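Q: What changes when magnesium ion is included in the input?
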Amino acid sequence: MANVLYHNDIQDEVLKQKRIAVIGYGSQGHAHAQNLKESGYDVVVGVRAGKSWSKAEQDGMTVKSVAEAVAHADVVMVLLPDEHQPSVYQHEIKPNLEPGNALAFAHGFNVHFNQVVPPQDVDVFLVAPKGPGHLVRRTFTEGAGVPALYGVFKDYTGEAASIAKAYAKGIGSGRAGVLETSFQEETETDLFGEQAVLCGGLSSLVKAGFETLTEAGYQPEVAYFECLHELKLIVDLMYEGGLENMRYSISDTAQWGDFVSGKRIVDASTKERMKEVLADIQSGTFAKGWILENQANRPEFTAINAQESKHPIEQVGRELRQLMPFVQESEKAKSEKEVVPGGTH
Ligand SMILES: NC(=O)C1=CN([C@@H]2O[C@H](COP(=O)(O)OP(=O)(O)OC[C@H]3O[C@@H](n4cnc5c(N)ncnc54)[C@H](OP(=O)(O)O)[C@@H]3O)[C@@H](O)[C@H]2O)C=CC1
Ligand SMILES: CC[C@](O)(C(C)=O)C(=O)O
Ligand SMILES: [Mg+2]
Ligand SMILES: [Mg+2]
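A: The predicted holo structure follows.
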């Protein structure tokens, strides 16, 4: 088995002496900055003027411009959207890096696909939490954590791996497991996971199930509960004890249906297409397409995003969730209320 490190396996003195700049205060940024601060680290947040600046200040963080935060820090964690990193790196981060600093990422995309080419005289590492930023924060406050991968691209000081491991511990990942990787492995597996299983595969499965039921005349509310709401409850069982634990809790009828019908839905041809998706990631075809889409100002992304939010499963879901006060309000809904005071969406 791989060498999975936990809280007490990781020394943190090497990072305690350093000043950390968290660049960006979005999903990952707010979580890293707050968790590190609460773990006793010297943290500043680097953002542009606007919403993130105000939010970080409201959360009690020290906030500087990106350039000032980088100039001030020894360790610079870049938590901007992947598509904005190359330009911000070129204009605001690179000119302010000093020899011996550490440049860090939560995903290897830009370094692996040569969109950010770091200087020779800095450490370069990644700490990639295997979970959404809002859960990196929420689990930390609950005394738990999200597992993370760490990997070193350049070890200029000889301390890069130690700093990376301490950083992972500082955001709470030592409570769940910290595992060594490479930039290539993290980038390719993360892109594959989000496209084929966690986000792309799952959202397509959920929509197809919902559409099949509603097109057959069943009530949309029943289809929503069956294909989306209950998914969390089923996945929680898998999270706690694997497929076996899920199958322990469901009826034997459901388990038999799982065995005989699951493979009719996800079959050998699905796996073939998964291999094609992986091949596009490995060859750089996916990365090239995403970079070009951004250079063209995201026409397809914007159109699909607008279309998706109008899907009947989203419409019925919004209505049903308002009637379920125990369903935790999403971070997205909360942030929209902050922008539109008194808003209900
Ligand atoms: N989302 C996740 O859970 C995960 C993300 N990652 C990786 O973490 C990194 C960050 O992703 P994520 O947290 O989703 O990013 P977000 O989209 O949440 O980042 C938003 C932040 O970036 C700032 N920002 C955006 N554009 C610019 C710009 N041009 N100049 C300055 N600031 C800018 C925003 O500021 P403003 O408010 O001013 O717009 C905001 O503070 C990525 O590399 C991603 O792949 C890794 C694991 C999981
Ligand atoms: C699953 C999507 C993710 O890779 C993540 C939350 O881990 C991302 O890029 O947001
Ligand atoms: Mg991921
Ligand atoms: Mg990802």
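Observations recorded in class: The domain at 4-181 is CATH 3.40.50.720 (Rossmann fold).
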